[in-house]
Backbone:
């Protein structure tokens, strides 16, 4: 038997993409600001977040992020 058939490779843990990491960060900031006593433009924040995420996705597809 060859060594390749005896040892199975361990599954690789998938790392978050830049977009996924940024989206998680944005969601955390959104919740923190939403729950604070400060005035917060939720719609404006969401719109800006979606624009940034769309651009990041585009850059990832092009291999630049």
Residues:
């Amino acid at each position: 038997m060859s060594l390749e058939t005896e040892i199975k490779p361990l599954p690789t843990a998938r790392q978050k993409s830049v977009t996924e990491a940024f989206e998680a960060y944005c969601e955390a900031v959104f919740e923190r600001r939403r729950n604070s006593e400060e005035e917060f433009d939720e719609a404006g924040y969401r719109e800006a977040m979606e624009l940034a995420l769309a651009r990041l996705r585009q850059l990832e597809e092009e291999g630049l992020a």
